[in-house]
Design brief:
14 strands, five-stranded parallel beta sheet, elongated, 20 helices, alpha/beta
C-alpha cells in the first residue's frame, strides 16, 4: 500500500527536511499551505500520516488528535517537538499521538525513526485491508484435483508465483480464477502486502477509472474529497483485474501506460505517482477473438499475458468432483452446524455425471444446499437440485443443454393433477433457471436480468420470492 503523509510544519526548512526524509522512505508527501486550516485540508484529502509541529496541535490536545483519528482514513499523527518536555510528551501520547519525535535528531537518526513509523503504519494498513476483506489464506496445495491437467497448471502457477511478471488467468465463469490469483499472491514475495481485486465488468466506466487510479477533489460531480485508487492500495502487492475483457478502450490505454511506466495519475490530477504493483488479470472470454474484433488492445494483451494459466472447466475433470464435494460438505457441516457426513451412492453418481455449467461455484452452491436440506447424516438425491438429479441441465460439448424435464423427473409428479404438476414443475424450472444464470454471472443481477429478458427490479422480486441472494453466487472464498 502506498503511504501518504500530510505535513503541517511551521518552519520551511524543517518541513523541507521532513519531506525529503519521508520521500526517501517511499512516502507520497503533501503539505498544508500557510493560512489553511488543517482539519479543512484533511476533510478533502486522503492520507495515512499527519506530521505536525507542536504549535499546530490546538489546545487541548485531547480535542485535536481524536478529531484527526475520526476521519475516514483514520490517519496517525506524528508530533514534532523542538525541545524535550516529559510532561508535554506524556500529554501528547495520552491524547493519541502515533509518535512524538524530537526534531533535533541528526538526519540519520530522524530518517531511521520516520522509516520505522512508516513501516508500522504500512503494516497496520495492510492488516486492516485484510480484516475488511475477511478472506482466508489461499495455498496452491489446497487446489483439490486428481486431474493431470490441473496438476500441470498448479505446477506452472507455483513456478511463476515467485516472479513479478504479469499473469493472465483464463477459464469459464466459476472455475476459481480469483482463488488461483490469491494463491499465487500468497505464495509469492508480495504476500505481506495487499491483494486488491476488482471486477472490471461490474462497475460503470466512470467509476472504474476512479476505482483504479483514484481521483482528486473536484475531479467530477460528487468528488468532495480526494480518494486513492486500487493501484495505490495495492502498492508493493498484487492487483487482480477480473473480467479484463470488459474494460473500456480508453482505460485499456491508461492501464497499458501504467504497466509500461509504473506510474499513474489520479482522475483530475496532474502529478505522476510511482507505483509498484504486480498485475494478475482474468477473463472468461476469448481474447484472440476480442482482439480480432478490435475491442481489446493487442499490445495490452502481450503485457498481461507474460504467462497464461488456463483453468479447465469442471466437466473436463470429473475425477475431481467427489473430492470437491467431500471438501465442501465438511466445510458446510461445520458452518451450518449439521450432522451430515456423507453422500449416498446415487447422489454422488448424479453429481459426478452432471456437466456443471457453473463449474466449482455451482458445485459449492449445490453442496451447501444439500447440507442444509438433508434430514439425516447422508445427502441423497432428494437433497440435490432437480437439474442435477435429472441430468436435464447437463451441457453437451457444443454448449447446448439437453431436454428438460426428463422422464425420471416427471415421474415424481404423476400422483398429482396436471394443473398442480404443471405449476410445481414451472416453479422448479424458474428457480433452477435463475440459479443457473446467477451462477454463470457470479451473482451479477444486471447481466442475469439482460440474459433472462427481465427488468432488474422484476428479477430482484423473483429472487426474494425464491430465497436467492446475489452474494451466494459470487466467487468461491
Amino acid at each position: 500500500m502506498l503511504i501518504r503523509a500530510l505535513l503541517a510544519v511551521d518552519s520551511t526548512s524543517q518541513r523541507e527536511r521532513i519531506e525529503r526524509l519521508l520521500r526517501q522512505a517511499g512516502v507520497v508527501v503533501t503539505h498544508v499551505p500557510a493560512g489553511e486550516a488543517l482539519l479543512d485540508r484533511l476533510a478533502r484529502e486522503s492520507c495515512d500520516l499527519v506530521v505536525l509541529s507542536r504549535s499546530a496541535v490546538v489546545e487541548p490536545a485531547g480535542h485535536t488528535l481524536p478529531a484527526i483519528h475520526e476521519l475516514a482514513d483514520r490517519p496517525e499523527v506524528i508530533v514534532l517537538i523542538d525541545q524535550e518536555d516529559p510532561e508535554d510528551r506524556a500529554a501528547l501520547q495520552a491524547a493519541g499521538s502515533f509518535a512524538v519525535v524530537y526534531a533535533g535528531l541528526s538526519d540519520s537518526a530522524l530518517r531511521k525513526t520516520l522509516s520505522k513509523l512508516v513501516q508500522r503504519r504500512h503494516e497496520s494498513a495492510v492488516d486492516r485491508l485484510a480484516a475488511e476483506e475477511r478472506q482466508p489464506s489461499f495455498r496452491l496445495a489446497e487446489f483439490v484435483s486428481a486431474s493431470p491437467a490441473m496438476h500441470r497448471l498448479v505446477d506452472l502457477a507455483r513456478r511463476v508465483a515467485s516472479s513479478d511478471s504479469s499473469l493472465l488467468i483464463v477459464g469459464e465463469t466459476g472455475v476459481g480464477k480469483e482463488w488461483l490469483a490469491r494463491a499465487v499472491h500468497t505464495e509469492g514475495p508480495r504476500s505481506t502486502s495487499p491483494f486488491i481485486a476488482i471486477n472490471c465488468g461490474a462497475v460503470t466506466e466512470t467509476l472504474l477509472e476512479s476505482e483504479l487510479f483514484g481521483h482528486e477533489k473536484g475531479a467530477f460531480t460528487g468528488a468532495f474529497r480526494s480518494r486513492r485508487g486500487y493501484f495505490e492500495l495495492a502498492h508493493h502487492g498484487t492487483l487482480f483485474l477480473d473480467e479484463i475483457a470488459e474494460m473500456p478502450a480508453h482505460l485499456q490505454t491508461r492501464l497499458l501506460r501504467a504497466l509500461q511506466d509504473r506510474t499513474i495519475q489520479r482522475v483530475g490530477g496532474e502529478t505522476p505517482i510511482e507505483v509498484d504493483v504486480r498485475i494478475i488479470a482474468a477473463t472468461n472470454r476469448d481474447l484472440e477473438e476480442a482482439m480480432a474484433e478490435k475491442s481489446f488492445r493487442r499490445d495490452l494483451y502481450y503485457r498481461l499475458a507474460v504467462v497464461t494459466l488456463q483453468i479447465p472447466p469442471l466437466r473436463e475433470r470429473r475425477e475431481d468432483v467427489p473430492e470437491l464435494c467431500e471438501r465442501y460438505l465438511s466445510r458446510f457441516r461445520r458452518q451450518l452446524g449439521r450432522r451430515v457426513s456423507r453422500f449416498d451412492a446415487s447422489a454422488m453418481a448424479a453429481l459426478t455425471a452432471y456437466d456443471w455449467p457453473g463449474n466449482v461455484r455451482e458445485l459449492i452452491n449445490a453442496v451447501e444446499r444439500a447440507v442444509l436440506l438433508a434430514t439425516g447424516d447422508t445427502v441423497t438425491c432428494d437433497d440435490l437440485p432437480a437439474g442435477i438429479v435429472s441430468g436435464g441441465s447437463v451441457r453437451s460439448g457444443d454448449g447446448h443443454t439437453g431436454a428438460w424435464p426428463s422422464p425420471n423427473f416427471v415421474s415424481a409428479y404423476l400422483d398429482r393433477p396436471l394443473a398442480a404438476a404443471k405449476e410445481q414443475v414451472l416453479s422448479v424450472l424458474e428457480r433452477e433457471y435463475l440459479v443457473g444464470l446467477l451462477t454463470q454471472t457470479g451473482g451479477n443481477v444486471g447481466q442475469t436480468a439482460r440474459r433472462a429478458g427481465l427488468d432488474p427490479r422484476t428479477l430482484y422480486g423473483k429472487m426474494r420470492a425464491l430465497g436467492l441472494k446475489k452474494e451466494d453466487f459470487r466467487a468461491p472464498r
